[in-house]
């Protein structure tokens, strides 16, 4: 049965005004999406909790999450050439499940990515505040630090995707290098008791805490799927997007696994959980100080700040490109898609996003909230749930799209990968919801309010879609069909 959706829109003329064409190769896209995941931050800040709860099997948890997301990537990238918009999840869901589901996904994606970006300003403020105090003896209010961070992110993104990719490349290499240095130091000295593969023994993979930490493991890959958002700025996107997606997922899965395994070796399989319980925030700093030197611990502390900043730049880019796609389709006002005449950066969407972040920071600051337990936890947690749910919807849409496609366009491998990843990601989402207290650090009923935001946002998206269908059918018909315009890259 042939699909009833029209073919993906053709690319616009090379001289059309818009995003900078051919600006990103595989490496640039990989830098953007891996930086969004903030490897150093999720390792030093979250992996100790995974070790505390999951025990020595935690390294395998990251590897398992990587395998599931690689299966998802098979389905996701197979559909790349059939999607002509830079709306990523929004466009994919529309192509497979129709305009109503697509617009609901668009609203959830815009809210989720915006939440990820805004919430992490709390983490940036907390880490910078602690670093300034420890290293320089300077104490600043966290809202001031967060507002300075917003200004820096806005400025970097203002100058276009090429500048952002170069900045992220430098920051990502630095944070990856410090983690590799730590792991290398542990391995070179043989750890505390000699190197062991106990983390991958079957008995340690089925411990009571392993199911719970899978939520943390999947959250460590946030943003990898945003490779497709840069379609309009990529060189040969049909090849570049899949390649960047596989490289990003594969790198993070293996790197996370090796780094966390090295921490297990640093304290020994019998001692790592006890050490994590005694020094949860400082676990990684203790490892690198012991096996490399105190200077390396200070450097790691500084690089955690740059890691969070890099994540902010990457997510800012992702949010603005979703806004561009919705503007191109007529869902958002045309002004939301206004680009800088020279840098081809989405200045209006970027300023709006930064304005939302500034308002959130000021509001939480005036309320006397903690930047981590307040701004980060309560805004980021529903965003993480939202992104996982979007992955499930995308996997389902791939299955529907290829099973309805004309015979020449069918892709059996993508269908199988879509079914498998939809089931596995649905399980991961359920585990995250069931163990959301790991992220919020509370057992109160407020957890249900945080999780409940996600279905509410989806319902709002459906209501908007149904309203558009009746009141503005010409806009409804364009949902998910538009192509973000591109412009020739300037040398």
From TrEMBL:
Domain Amino acid permease/ SLC12A: 29-468
Main localization of the protein described in the UniProt heading: membrane
Single biological process term from Gene Ontology: transmembrane transport
Signal peptide feature range: none
Membrane topology: Multi-pass membrane protein
Chain segments annotated as transmembrane: 29-54, 60-79, 100-120, 140-161, 168-188, 200-224, 245-268, 288-311, 348-369, 375-401, 413-433, 445-468
Record key words, sorted: Membrane, Transmembrane, Transmembrane helix
Name of this chain's protein: Amino acid/polyamine/organocation transporter, APC superfamily (TC 2.A.3)
Species for this entry: Klenkia marina
